[in-house]
Amino acid sequence: EQDPAVLGDEVKEASKRAVERRYTLNPYLYTLFYRAHVYGYTVVRPLFHEFTKDENTWNNGEQFMWGQCLLISPVLREGENSVRMYLPDTEWWDFNYNESTQESRTGEYIVKGAADNIPLHVRGGCIIPTEDYKLKTYNSDPPKNFTFYVFPLNHEASGDIYLDGLNSIKPVENKKYEVYHFGYKNCSLEIKKTHLWNGDTFDGYVAVIHVFKVQEAKNVYIGSESVSTFSLNDATNVLTINVNKLLAYVQEITWDDGNKNCQMLP
Question: Example GO molecular function term (predicted)?
Answer without folding.
Answer: hydrolase activity, hydrolyzing O-glycosyl compounds
